[in-house]
Design goal:
alpha/beta; eight-stranded mixed β-sheet; six-stranded mixed β-sheet; binds flavin-adenine dinucleotide
Length: 500
């Protein structure tokens, strides 16, 4: 006899969407979360809640966000984000490696899944602050990312927890699932470690949604490569690859970009793991409006290659690969008003100076002569004849530099100058488990493992090399809902058959 119809492993966005979906079929659902309650919610709780969805115009947005006023609509160009645009972005940033079936599921179910989440009590709002600048009195959204959950990641987790409670879903914290109960044919539950000891819990179906392996320095070094143990973890310390490991242990197929991860520029002095009181604010995402130099005083990447949403997740790796794993981001007063709020927090590694000569002397770890020569060469190379516009790829570029900047180039000539030191912050890992069109985990022969489903960061095959901002939450929601629906259905069919 099973104790529960469905057991869900983890209590982040993917897990909670899975639990809510499974419950819709009448299944009894238990959620097991490794973290204590005050640290629960996984990486989801560290996010700003930005979520990438298809929308074909402002009417679609108003349906999701009925609080939008006529005045707000009048002063904003929301544009569209069609499924074609989403497909283009997924394929382009992953260098055409992403699994086309997974991408299709993600994209075609994105808007419908947000509508479903709204029905569960999750509220959304436009990301005015981070994704649109006011130019000539009007906001214009860019980069395909327009919506965030009300209250950011903490608000999203709270709304999902409350919804789970209303549906009679039980969540047990400080409950680390150790392995799956498996009889060589089907999964029939989990073994879990709690403060009271280890117990077995039987279930008709199990959904794994326990995140990636980014908080495990040994796995990072083993799979991402040498030096990755030196990265800082942006979010939860509990995502150490348990869900992936326990599925591989019973013969699940590994899938996707196992040497790849989402990693960003992150404050040099940030702690080893994320800090919920700071959330995502150790990140420093406004580099498209400045330049980055390394210990040798050199620029090393095109800071303006694309909108931030399409470069930030791969530039953490580039920074990790610099000497001593750091970079300084440099800005002048022409652009400091465009810097995101995260530049104004207290725990920030920042220097300012009235001249470039003084600034380079303050950049710890940097060769000052080489840096000054680089900044001088930079100032000579900016194509000032092209107008600057932060809302579009303005083509304001450089000429004659070994490392060009393609957009938003500005001379550094308006003091005081500001510089921020960043290192690599790893967000989540791209490799994971292989699922089929029902969210069911596949074994190494590519047959579905009866009773086992998966969703969220531990699913491989969607992201390779890079990632379009806001897709992690959307993927967790779409595939969580799918896995939960199918797990619930399978469990209830089993129940019906047993009763016959
Ligand atoms: C700082 C930061 C900012 C981000 N910003 C955004 C953003 O704005 N938009 C976006 O789309 N994405 C963002 N992301 C990525 C996003 O967090 C993830 O893609 C998404 O939240 C992952 O959801 P998930 O449910 O798969 O994993 P998680 O939310 O991490 O949940 C996994 C859960 O599994 C639990 N767990 C682990 N092992 C076990 C075990 N053995 N037993 C039981 N439970 C276990 C963990 O404690 C955790 O609660 C951000 C990430 C970070 C770190």
């Amino acid at each position: 006899m099973a104790d529960w119809d469905v057991v869900v492993v983890g209590a982040g966005n993917a897990a909670l969407c899975a639990a809510l979906a499974a419950r819709e079929s009448g299944a009894s659902v238990l959620v097991l979360e490794r973290a204590p309650e005050d640290e629960g919610g996984g990486n989801t709780r560290f996010t700003a809640g930005a979520i990438r969805t298809v929308y074909n115009g402002v009417d679609d947005l108003r349906a999701l966000m009925p609080d939008l006023t006529d005045e707000e609509v009048a002063i904003t160009d929301f544009g569209t984000y069609t499924s074609d645009q989403f497909f283009d972005d997924m394929f382009r940033v992953t260098q055409y490696r992403c699994d086309a079936d997974l991408a299709e599921t993600l994209i075609t179910r994105s808007y419908d899944t947000l509508t479903w989440m709204r029905g569960k009590g999750v509220r959304f709002q436009p990301i005015w602050g981070r994704q649109a600048f006011k130019v000539d009195g009007r906001f214009k959204f860019w980069g395909g990312l327009t919506i965030e959950a009300w209250g950011g990641g903490p608000g999203l987790v709270e709304a999902l927890w409350q919804s789970a409670a209303r549906q009679g879903i039980e969540i047990r914290y400080s409950s680390r699932v150790l392995n799956l109960l498996y009889d060589d044919i089907k999964v029939s539950g989990v073994r879990v470690k709690t403060p009271n000891g280890v117990e077995s819990i039987k279930a008709k179906a199990v959904v794994l949604a326990a995140g990636g392996f980014q908080a495990n320095p040994e796995w990072r070094t083993r799979y991402l490569g040498a030096g990755w143990e030196l990265a800082k973890v942006r979010g939860s310390r509990f995502n150490t690859g348990d869900g992936i490991r326990m599925a591989l242990d019973i013969g699940a197929a590994p899938y996707g970009n196992w040497s790849g991860s989402h990693a960003v520029g992150w404050d040099y002095n940030a702690p080893e793991f994320g800090d919920l009181t700071v959330g995502d604010n150790f990140q420093k995402h406004s580099y498209p409006f400045g330049i980055m130099i390394n210990a040798e005083g050199k620029r090393f990447v095109d800071e303006g290659a694309d909108f931030r949403n399409y470069t930030y997740a791969k530039y953490g790796r580039v920074i990790l690969n610099q000497p001593n794993q750091f970079a300084w981001q440099v800005f002048d007063q022409k652009v400091t008003h465009l810097l995101r709020d995260e530049y104004r927090i207290k725990r920030v590694t920042k220097v300012t100076a009235p001249t470039l000569e003084e600034l380079v002397g303050k950049l710890e770890g940097v060769n000052p002569q080489a840096a000054l020569a680089e900044l001088t060469a930079w100032n000579d190379a900016v194509m000032t004849e092209v107008p600057f516009d932060p809302n579009v790829k303005d083509g304001r570029s450089t000429r004659g530099l070994a490392v060009p900047k393609s957009n938003w180039a500005n001379r550094l000539d308006t003091p005081p100058y500001e510089a921020y030191q960043v290192t690599c912050g790893v967000t989540f890992t791209f490799g994971g488990l292989r699922i089929d069109g029902n969210g069911q985990v596949q074994d190494v022969d590519l047959a579905p493992i009866p009773g086992l489903y998966a969703a969220g960061e531990l699913v491989g095959g969607l992201f390779y090399f890079n990632y379009p901002g806001g897709t992690g939450l959307m993927s967790g929601a779409v595939f969580g809902r799918l896995a939960g629906t199918e797990a619930g259905k399978a469990a209830m069919e089993g129940t019906t058959r047993a009763a016959e």
